[in-house]
Amino acid sequence: MTEIKYPKSFSHIGITVPEIHKAVKFYQEIMGWYVIMKPSTVKKENDTAIGQMCIDVFGENWEEFDIAHMSTSEGIGIELFSFPHGKKETPEFNPFNTGLFHFCVQDPDIENLTKRIVEAGGKQRMPIREYYPNEKPYKMVYVEDPFGIVFEIYTHSYELTYSSGAYQK
């Protein structure tokens, strides 16, 4: 079998939130993401392909959950889950452990987006920083949504930010 070497595209990210309707509202109003599928309830059952897939993923120890699908401007999917029996407190931020650390969004108006996140009940975790002070306008900041999910904001694309050697002197 021939190995095909090419970069895979990013399809979506799944995020568990405490309240599906509040999360959809936040991500739609603050992040501008499109609602692809409004919140709905999935019940455990074996009669449909979706039901069987959910049992395969989540096992047998659940009865139902809420789900919604959203999309960024470039078509990256955001799959929101809310489980009635799951923990509802803010997850512990520990980037030193193996696992998903954060995701990143891009907005040239980083100051305004950060302000809107805070006004909506989120947090700014650090000052907005420049990668190349007085040289290039590339900025970044870490924030939290109102549910304690940590993410990053860039002003410019990933390629532009790092192709110039952000960590080199």
UniProtKB/TrEMBL annotation:
Domain VOC: 9-156
Gene3D superfamilies xref list: 2,3-Dihydroxybiphenyl 1,2-Dioxygenase, domain 1
Keyword hit for Metal-binding: yes
SUPFAM superfamilies named among the record's database cross-references: Glyoxalase/Bleomycin resistance protein/Dihydroxybiphenyl dioxygenase
Pfam family, one: Glyoxalase
Keyword Metal-binding applies: yes
InterPro entries: Glyas_Bleomycin-R_OHBP_Dase (IPR029068), Glyas_Fos-R_dOase_dom (IPR004360), Lactoylglutathione_lyase (IPR019883), MMCE/EMCE_epimerase (IPR051785), VOC_core (IPR037523)
Superkingdom to which the source organism belongs: Bacteria
Any one biological process term the GO annotation gives: L-methylmalonyl-CoA metabolic process
Single GO MF descriptor: methylmalonyl-CoA epimerase activity
Keyword tags: Lyase, Metal-binding
Stated name of the protein: Lactoylglutathione lyase family protein
Species of origin: Seonamhaeicola maritimus
